[in-house]
Design a protein that fits this description.
- The structure holds 2 protein chains of 2 kinds.
- Chain A contains 17 helices and 21 strands.
- Chain A is α+β, with helices and mostly antiparallel strands.
- Chain A folds into 4 domains: 145 residues, no CATH class; 116 residues, no CATH class; 165 residues, no CATH class; 41 residues, no CATH class.
- Chain A is globular and about 80 Å long.
- Chain B is of the alpha+beta class.
- Helices cover 42% and strands 22% of the residues of chain B.
- In chain B, the strands form 2 sheets. Chain B has a 4-stranded antiparallel sheet with strand order 1-2-3-4.
- Chain B is elongated.
- The chains are: A alpha+beta, B alpha+beta.
Chain lengths: 539, 194
């Protein structure tokens, strides 16, 4: 049943808006910098302003490239033509078990993506998209760092049809997406598909709590500062902060007095402390606003063998993750979260690791940004049935691991401490002792909390003292296993095991088990690679 | 951590050690997947020594230019009396190290191919054993540079879907052996749903 969809006509508008936005920031920078430099340049009889003047010398007089309209046209005419051509030539079709994307006018491109290879099917809808009833669709397969296809923009009904076709025909074809190696029977799928099982829903109250816990307010401030910096206004920012905003020169004066070894007057300390508290509160407030705006009405549902997350107040994001495509699962804790009995759950998929609109790198798919600790086992059981963190047989690392782990800490704090003692004398001894003992304590606690577990289905690593993480990777998703032995390991007869899985970034918490006895490491590595070799990898 | 890499291998239980079996040469191997540890092709040592020689010449040249220009720019005699001997010593030591390193590294690399996949051991100080299961191999390359062609060697590159180990490289194989390993890792009747 061949069927085709075109892009929504609004795609021309969105493409134009996109190129305008790409053009807007440089233009703004240019305008601001020319404004700022014009008094100085004006004095010197209008020095050569690059690139306008330089370009003008190559062009007839009637065209003045210093006119911004000309620049706008130079940039926008090709963009418009490209957008219209794309709209006219882009076709999404469904043929057999494949998604077929045709594009191009002179160089025609036809891309076939089998349903079975699709990792994620995501839709992003900003306010504008929602106004037009369209969505930007992203299709991710295992290969590469980029989405296999970006369809901008598709009518919502077309997107719904795509989602239905992709996931239904996959279930009907019996593509084994079930985490268990057994083939998923079609009937079972169809039955469960009717009832979407809501695994998690976050009400506004939880989102506000999340905002407080996650402290993304600094992100907002950093973004604002970044914008200032790009426009070359960062000095203004600091000027305002240090002298202009509240009580002129207060911060500077207090700093000078502190440097002279005097205590500033009490009222100054009060004002400064108040400002600091206000800043912290403001940051938390911004963070709460961020959490509500970004994750409003967060919903995690299970539909047959797929997970679906949906969230956002203004920009509505819908992501579909086939259950069998989950490469690893991570639980994260912080002291505050533990105090409130909450934790967070994320999973790694093999689909494109970087998403331009979410920042350069988004390592994990967030399954549950915030969830009650008591609800975690049920969620894990629904997502990765073979891996229940409670039933795993956790094992500690080598008994002498602390002696091995504390040495780098001692080296890192000891050498600067000796320097401090030599230069500043015995006065700093309490400080040095405090820092060193804190480091020893951290090493001690980190080693004590390190634990690993491996059974026939999964391998897992638990780590961290205050900020704890648990990462679980199914054996069927292991790519390579490496036993690693550093010279320091060798002295202590230890070794480590690193399990490499698909997806995510190098920075995310992975199953890298350190400080094992050499025999255990070697046995674990060969056991895991043997197990992995005996299971077929299905992404 | 013995200062001499030769000593480093004489530790206790040889778990991450290379235990190569040099009695069987590559051409005598009836099947490639025999589960025996093999060293790399011995011709890999002179090849790497040529690389080392090139590196030495480049290093010496660049550092000589830097040293001389610093000396000339200083406009005095005594910096040269310090710098030129220093340059000589540094270049001499690094040339000596670069010359002997290929043979040391060679002793610490081995590989084993069996029915389940390939296991590569390497590293003089930081040792690692990487196993790539056959079922995880996405695709493989066998490449040969101009120098490698002269020596009859090849480089095997195994691509997996992983992150840190998305590319596992094994240089210094006889070209024909690299091709045989590739054929073993990617059988024609492979039939999985990746």
């Amino acid at each position: 049943m061949p069927s085709e969809h075109r892009l929504h006509p609004a795609s021309i508008l969105f493409a134009l808006a996109g190129s305008l936005r790409a053009f807007a920031l440089p233009a703004l920078v240019l305008m601001v910098s020319s404004l700022r430099s014009s008094p100085a340049a004006g004095a010197g009889s209008g020095g050569p302003r690059w690139p306008g003047r330089w370009m003008n010398s190559w062009l007839p007089d009637s065209l003045d490239l210093e006119n911004w309209q000309v620049w706008l046209l130079v940039f926008l005419i090709p963009a418009t033509i490209a957008a219209v051509v794309r709209y006219l030539t882009f076709r999404v079709g469904y043929e057999g078990g494949e998604l077929v994307i045709r594009s191009g006018l002179f160089f025609r491109n036809e891309r076939h993506v089998p349903y079975g290879r699709i990792q994620n099917l995501d839709a992003t809808r900003t306010l504008m998209h929602r106004l037009f009833g369209v969505a930007e669709v992203r299709i991710e397969t295992g290969g590469g760092k980029e989405p296999e296809a970006r369809i901008s923009v598709l009518h919502m009904t077309a997107f719904e049809e795509m989602r239905r076709r992709v996931f239904e025909s996959r279930a009907a074809a019996g593509v084994p997406d079930a985490p268990a190696p057994a083939l998923a029977t079609p009937d079972e799928d169809v039955v469960s598909r009717d009832a979407a099982q809501t695994l998690l829903h976050l009400p506004v109250r939880e989102l506000l709590l999340l905002g407080v816990l996650e402290n993304r307010g600094f992100l907002v401030i950093a973004a604002i500062y970044g914008a200032f910096w790009e426009m070359g206004l960062q000095s203004l920012f600091w000027e305002g902060l240090t002298s202009g905003l509240y009580a002129p020169g207060l911060l500077r004066g207090a700093g000078r007095q502190l440097a002279n070894g005097q205590l500033p007057p009490l009222w100054q300390i009060g004002v400064l402390a108040g400002g600091l508290v206000g800043l912290v509160l403001l940051v938390r407030l911004l963070s709460m606003v961020w959490a509500v705006g970004r994750l409003y009405d967060f919903r995690l549902e299970r539909l047959g063998n797929d997970l679906r997350t949906e969230y956002g107040l203004f920009t509505r994001v819908t992501a579909t993750i086939p259950l069998g495509r989950i490469q690893s699962l991570t639980l994260r804790d912080s002291p505050l979260r533990r105090l409130l009995g909450r934790t967070s759950v994320s999973v790694e998929t093999a689909g494109g690791a970087s998403r331009p609109e979410d920042g350069p790198k988004r390592p994990r798919e967030r399954l549950a940004p915030l969830i009650r600790a008591s609800a975690v086992p049920a969620l894990v059981a629904a997502v990765m049935p073979q891996a229940d963190p409670a039933t795993l047989d956790w094992q500690g690392v080598h008994p002498r691991a602390f002696r091995r782990a504390v040495k780098p800490h001692l080296l890192l704090t000891g050498l600067p401490s000796i320097g401090l003692l030599l230069f500043l004398g015995w006065r700093v001894l309490p400080l040095v002792v405090a820092v060193i003992s804190l480091n020893v304590l951290v090493a001690r606690q980190q080693v004590r909390h390190l634990a690993w577990a491996a059974n026939d289905d999964v391998v897992a690593l638990r780590g961290g003292w205050l900020w704890r993480s648990v990462t679980i990777a199914p054996v069927a998703k292991i790519q390579t296993v490496t036993a690693i032995e550093s010279p320091f390991d060798r002295r202590a007869a230890m070794a480590g095991v690193r399990v490499d899985t698909a997806g995510g970034s190098e920075l995310s918490h992975r199953v890298h088990i350190p400080y094992l006895s050499r025999e255990i490491a070697s046995a674990l590595a060969s056991r895991l690679s043997g197990q992995a070799a005996r299971t077929a990898f299905r992404w | 951590m013995g200062p001499n890499p030769g000593d480093a291998s004489s530790g206790t239980t040889p778990v991450l050690e290379t235990s190569v079996n040099p009695s069987v040469t590559d051409s005598e191997r009836s099947t490639i997947a025999d589960g025996i540890d093999y060293p790399l092709d011995p011709r890999y040592v002179p090849l790497r020594q040529i690389h080392s020689a090139i590196a030495t010449v480049v290093l010496a040249g660049v550092s000589l230019v830097a040293t001389l220009s610093f000396w000339i720019a200083s406009g005095r005699l005594w910096p040269g009396l310090v710098l030129v001997p220093m340059w000589l010593v540094l270049v001499g030591v690094s040339a000596w190290q670069l010359r002997r390193w290929p043979a040391i590294a060679y002793r610490h690399v081995s590989y084993r191919v069996d029915g389940l996949g390939i296991e590569i051991r390497r590293g003089v100080y930081w040792r690692e054993v990487t196993s790539v299961p056959r079922s995880r191999v996405q695709h493989t390359d066998v490449s040969q540079g101009p120098l490698e062609r002269r020596f009859g060697l090849g480089t095997l590159v195994i691509h997996t879907a992983g992150t840190a180990n998305s590319e596992v490289t094994l240089s210094g194989l006889e070209h024909a052996v690299a091709g045989r390993i590739r054929d073993h890792l990617l059988p024609a009747d492979r039939n999985d749903a990746v």
